[in-house]
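This follows on from our talk about sequence and fold. Please put the record directly below this note.
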Amino acid sequence: MASGFRLTRKDTRKLQDLVRTSPEKADAALRKMAEEMVSDIKLSFNTSPPGRTYTRGGVTHVASVEGYPPNVDIGTLRASIGWSPDGRLRYLVHDGVEYGIHLEEGTEHMGPRPFMGPAFEARRRTFAQFLRDEGLI
């Protein structure tokens, strides 16, 4: 085994018990997490250092910097972010514009301005604490 490498396994028994014994509480917790993620994503906009400044349609916009969430131009992307149920104990957090994926992942002409991925990663890291705070595990 390589030095510094450690394989860990998560114990999911408490979570499985919650889903089995209190599916309505598990569902409410997941719904709350989806709502909070939408809020986190929307709040991340305009946190980029200033990038290139340009004028379009008589309005000046300060672009975001690669690697940071987008700065708001007219607000369509930010307003389109939401969540929806997608079956039992499953919620989707999504944007409602075609260009959102181009900002998230970048294009051949522009580096990524991730806004979904960082929010998901932050919530993944704190999921167990979230369930403890909610009194569920």
